[in-house]
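ENTRY TYPE: paired fold submission
RECORD: A
CONTENT: sequence, then structure tokens
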Amino acid sequence: MIMNKILIVDDEEKLRNLLGRLIKLEGFAVTEAGNLKMAHKAIEKEEPDVILCDVKLPDGNGIDFIKEVKAKYHLVEIILLTAYGNISDGIQAMKNGAFDYITKGDDNDKVIPLLNKAIEKVALKKKVALLEKQVGKKYNFESIIGTSSSITDAINLAKKVAPADTTVLLLGETGTGKEVFAQAIHNASARSGKPFMALNCSSFSKELLESEIFGYKSGAFTSAIKDKKGLIEEADSGTLFLDEIGEMPFELQSKLLRVLETHEFIKVGDTHTTKVDVRFIAATNRDLQQDVKDAKFREDLYYRLNVFTISLPPLRDRKKDIPVLAQFFLKVFAAKTNPAVETMSKEFMEHLQQCEWKGNIRELKNVIERAVILADGPELTLEDLPLELQAANLNSIKSLSSFDLASVEKLHIQRVLIHTKGNKTEAARLLNIGLTTLYRKIEEYTLA
């Protein structure tokens, strides 16, 4: 688990150590600095998520430090530590870009809740930054790999609706490529070249999701020191892709419906409407019709989104596409991590086609990446697959590459090890063999 990093900048060692212990107990990684010079070095080395900084330091002013840091490190959040009676310092700090301020020594009970809020904002900004990088990627219909009838039918539907500027609802399991389809539709439309913004509605709390989609006015809440555009406004004249739309809180659905009907919305904390020209593409892996019946999704919003529906097939329904997808991922990851890998064994490929792929294309991609990293030679073999995939379909005779006793024994040991989650003592007991014998067979069959 990756720990969030906190930097404490204060020349009072006792207070700094006290804060450090308090924050460490909450599971954060803490770095301390006694002056601004040490703080700058710590920022370059540790790349903290949040900085707690005193106002008066031996070599400078914390308020000026905020402006310097924010100019260079856009994602970091800074909380100012003010002395009693210096609230004006906190106000100036907010203007310079601070997340918030607390009174030194008196507000220790507020530190952790404030840190958690700042961390949540940093996480949001990192995701948005990643999305912004992805905006420039050019996905078109030629980027979608596969020749099975189920995927070509979906592609043909998407090609027809792309120029129509109609709202599109993409249905399909997680990992079936809904965002790739959304970008391909955008790039084949008259809006190509305009912004394509994407957001996963399941990634944020209701409050953060509302701010991210609709934006806010300065003063709407404590840390809203200036106006912020939401993704709807950022996507003006382009396309907004809302993934996992079924996870959108019920309260926000009415605001989205208003945008779809009137092409205008109200920012958080604002009293005036903002007009936009945005095409919406939504996606979900949920049964929205059932959610409407269960009063979990607005019926009027469902019909507004369900103008043109495209269902994306799961990978298990297009197994003839697995070889070409696997070869594509092999080339991509071999070039990045292990150029020696050139091909896959026949058994490896056959095994890929026998798996269920509950995670769909995304799972296949991850498995190939892992196999390429682990491979010792130019060819991917069964041993490069995770144990749970090596033992897939053991109940089917087709999953056995041969009928000799060794092959059957190897696969059976794999299945038992998976059942015991790697506990070799328990596996030996279930197999009714000695632990030493099990270790010898694991080494013989290269199951480690």
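RECORD: B
CONTENT: sequence, then structure tokens
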Amino acid sequence: MELLLILLLALSLDLLLGEPPRPIHPVVWMGKIISFWGNLAPAEHSQESSKWSQLTYGAGMALLTTAIFASAAYFLLFYVNELSPIAYIIVGALLLKPSFSFRELRRTALDVKTLLADDNLKDAQAKMSALVSREPRTLERPALISATIESVAENACDSFVAPIFYFLIFGVPGAIAYRVVNTLDAMIGYHGKYEYLGKVAARLDDILNFIPARISGILLVIAARLCQKDSRNAWQIMLRDRGKTESPNAGWPMGAMAGALRTRLEKAGCYSLGEVNTPLSHQLIASGVKLVDTSALLWVSLYLVAGVTYFVFAA
């Protein structure tokens, strides 16, 4: 029951207040520590020994950063629980909230939609930098719409389903550990400069998102049915196109979204999901946000029903 109350309070904080101020935001501090470790990393050279040095350093960097934040949360909650159950719930919710970011995700996507509706392409491109890692200034209107919908679908997993999934299994430290790994992947888990330094972080992120991504895809299919979208097409496109993305996980929620909206979502030169039945328009962003809203409500409802049922029968 304490976990249920922690989750409900954390969700309330997210919906009512949004993100904590940057100076005290745990994810900001995760980023600072990751940057600090990165500045101390072995220099990249073509020699094989340099690659192994970066790979080993990156593995230690990922494990140490995760251990620092997860253990700090664990011991703080252990101490607070000894003082007061009420304090434990409040502190637990305050620690859990930064591990997910639902209000900010939907707000940013809807801001992009509004800017595109006003034909303000430049400001829409600037706003997109909060959603995608690709360079938004090179994206034209259809690509901006597609990238926004893709990001909303993928982040339904990364920013909501996955943190709560690990909270259910390992409590608040589990959610925080997931957020550390996801932040590591976002900062150093890509090709190029961090090819070897970020490889372990990228693989850890793939492993941790394996189940949540598939849950997210299924939730979007169910949400499509509830929102009177094409749930059958969502299921078919998800299964058909799930392997087209470089990530083994991103194609599940993005494919389901493309199928539900009966449109094509694509990143030039990387992947193309779905079919062009519905042209990309700014109104589709609002439809995508509505699907994610519904899938999030389903996810929380499933947990609450399971938690209450367990509590009733355990009592």
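NOTES ON RECORD B: The first helix runs from residue 2 to 17. The chain has a mean pLDDT of 90.
STATUS: closed
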